[in-house]
Write a structure and sequence with these properties.
Chain A has about 110 residues and is mostly beta strands. Helix content of chain A is about 0%, strand content about 55%. In chain A, strands 2, 4, 5, 6, 9, 10 and 11 form a seven-stranded mixed β-sheet that branches. In chain A, strand 9 and strand 10 form a beta hairpin. Chain B is mainly β and about 110 residues long. Helix content of chain B is about 0%, strand content about 45%. In chain B, strands 1-9-8-3-4 form a five-stranded mixed β-sheet, with no helix packed on it. In chain B, strands 2-7-6-5 form a four-stranded antiparallel β-sheet, with no helix packed on it. In chain B, strand 6 and strand 7 form a beta hairpin. Chain B is globular and about 40 Å long. Classes of the chains: A mainly beta (about 110), B mainly beta (about 110).
Amino acid sequence: DTGVSQNPRHKITKRGQNVTFRCDPISEHNRLYWYRQTLGQGPEFLTYFQNEAQLEKSRLLSDRFSAERPKGSFSTLEIQRTEQGDSAMYLCASSNQGNPYEQYFGPGTRLTVT
Amino acid sequence: DAKTTQPPSMDCAEGRAANLPCNHSTISGNEYVYWYRQIHSQGPQYIIHGLKNNETNEMASLIITEDRKSSTLILPHATLRDTAVYYCIVRVEDYGQNFVFGPGTRLSVLP
C-alpha cells in the first residue's frame, strides 16, 4: 500500500489554459474526494465519488471544473480556461465505506496560474 | 455541519503535553468530533475521533466535555514532528461524506 498519489505535484500554467490533475487512491478504497486549499485556509470540499458515481459537488465546483472516475479507480480533475483565482493546492483523498472516519489524503497538486 | 472555534496558534515545549482546545457549542447529538492535522507540504492526516466518551489511541487522547460543547486534543509528549496545523471538525458519522475544515490551530513545538 503506497497511499494516495497525485500527479503532477506542481503545475504552472498561463491564464486561459486547461489543466488536468490525476489522483490514484488506495486500491481498496471505493470513496474518493477532491478538495482545494488556499494559503492559510483549511481544505475546501469540491466533489466526491463512490466507485464511479459522482455523488456530490460543491458550489465551488464551477462549470469550468470537471471531475471523473471512469472505472472507479483513479480520478481526474480538469480545470478549463484557468483563472488566477484557481491558484491553490488541490488535494485528493480516499476512504473505505467500511471505515468512514478516516480519509487518507495525497500530497496534493499545487497549481499556479500566471 | 456545526461550526467549531479553535485558537489560531499555540506553542508547546518539546517533551511536554500539548493541549489543543476546540469549542463546538452547537454540536448535535449525532455529530462526532474529529481531529486531523496537516504537516507542512503534506495532506491532512486523521488523528482521532469520538462521540461522547473520551478516546485514546497511539497518537493522542480526546477529551470531550459532558455537555459535548467543547473538547481537547492531547498530545502527551510533543515532539518537533508534531508541529502542524490541527483541525477540529464535527460531523455526523457518515453524512455528506466530506469534512468541513476551518482554519485550525497552528501548533509550534519548540526545542
